[in-house]
Each structure stands twice: as structure tokens, then as C-alpha cells.
Amino acid sequence: MKKVMAALGFALALAGAVHAADADPLNSSRWPDLQREYLNDAPVAFDPRIEVLAPKVAEDSMNVPVTVRLKGLPDVKRVLVIADFNPIVKVLDFQPLLAQPGLSFRIKLQQASPIRALVQTGDGNWLAGGVWVDAAGGGCTAPSTGRSAPDWAQKLNQVQGRVWRDGQNQRVRLRIMHPMDTGLAPGIPAFFIEQLAIVDDKGDAMLKLETFEPLSENPVFSFDLPDTGAVALRVVGRDNNGNRIDAKVQP
Question: Which has the minimum average pLDDT: 80-84, 165-169, 186-190, 208-212?
Fold first, then answer.
């Protein structure tokens, strides 16, 4: 009987340890609802190999730099980035395809919030990492500043890009001219880039992005791709009003 009770106690202790390991390390009251809404309540393991790098305190709530870095995590199929306490939670949905699974970008924050990277691997499992960022607030409800320029409409969806090569990989940095309006500023409807891809010279996608309103105005992205030599990369996409993005970035 004592052996049975000891075994039962060990099993309960092990179950408690597993539950504690899967508890939200950021202790956000929103996490259970977000897990249910965006992952269909699938189990999530919080993994130290997923790093979300951002300032502890945002100097500019409309322009918060974020880097998602994955260390030694194989077979990444999808990286979903969310901000728990933003009025629009979903930031971007990244399919790396041929790219390295990490990326850098900038977002708007309405208030202090965890920023999370939810990573799905080829076996269908979800892993997560994140960080709290303190913010003065108002990043999602302020109007874009670029609309005050008289030529903003002419520059809409123009792409500026740079490529750094090392013989095996290339880092691609893109800036796309767009107001990225959230629809939360008075009298200004939502107007944002919703799809992006980088394709090779054959038209095959090397990475895909679904993007949402919380990305910063004139969004900036950095990716690491296999080196394609002297072949120009093509950036294609569209915004939610159907305006097309189509540009070439020379290595």
C-alpha cells in the first residue's frame, strides 16, 4: 500500500511539474484566451530556444523594435507574433520556407504588453517565447505621421532594400512605404499591408508573410536567406485596399 501511495505521489508530482513548466512564464491574464483564440487551445511548451528581443521600455510606442531569434530549433513551419494587450493582438504570421526562421521588424504598442513568438514545427507542435515591454501607450490609436507629407500617395508601397552577402547566406533588409493605419484613429479607416513574399528568379517563394495593423508605419523587416548570387530578389504583396507591391532588390 505504501508503495502504491508513493507511486501515486510521484505521478502527481510529475504532473504538477509538467503543468508548472507549461504555465505562462510572462504571467499574463490574457494568455489563456489568446491560446484558445489563436491556437485552438492547443498545448504550448515555453522554450528557451525561442528568444524575443525588444527594449524593456519603449521609447516610441509607434515604433518598437523587435527581433525573433530561434536557436537550434529545427523544422520551423510558422512563426506567429502577437502582443497580448494590444487592441489588435495579431502582428504577423511568418512562413520561413527557405529563409532562416528568425526575423526583425517594428510594431506599435498601445500599452505595456508581452510580445510573443508562437512557433509551429513540422510535427504540428507549438512552442513559445516572449518578453514584456513597457510602453507609455497610444501607439495603436495615433494617426500615421507620413500622411502629412504631400507626396505620400505617390510613394505608397515603394520598396527600399539592401542585401549583405557572405557567400552562403544573405541578409535582406526591406523598408516599405505605407501608413499602416490601424483604423483606431478617429476618422481614419484601417489601411495596411496584408501580404508579402520574397520570390526567386523563377517566381518561387522563399518566404511568406501575412501582416497586420500593429506593424509600424513604413514597416522595416530583416530576414536571412540562402545566398542566390547576383540574382535580384523580388518582393511582392498587396495591402488591404488591393494596392500591389512589386519591386526588385539587387544583391
Answer: 165-169
pTM greater than the 0.85 cutoff? yes
Kindly give, in sequence order, each residue whose CB lies less than 8 Å from that of residue 171, ignoring residues fewer than 6 positions away: 163, 164, 222, 223, 224, 225
C-alpha cell at position 84: 497580448
Spatial distance between the Cα atoms of 8 and 26, rounded to a whole number of angstroms: 31
Alpha carbons 97 and 205: distance in angstroms, whole number: 8
Q: Which residues pair with 175 in a beta bridge?
A: 160, 220
C-alpha cell at 245: 507591391
For the four alpha carbons of 139, 145, 146 and 147, in that order, the dihedral sign comes to positive
Buried b (16+ CB within 10 A) or exposed e, 4-19: eeeeeeeeeeeeeeee
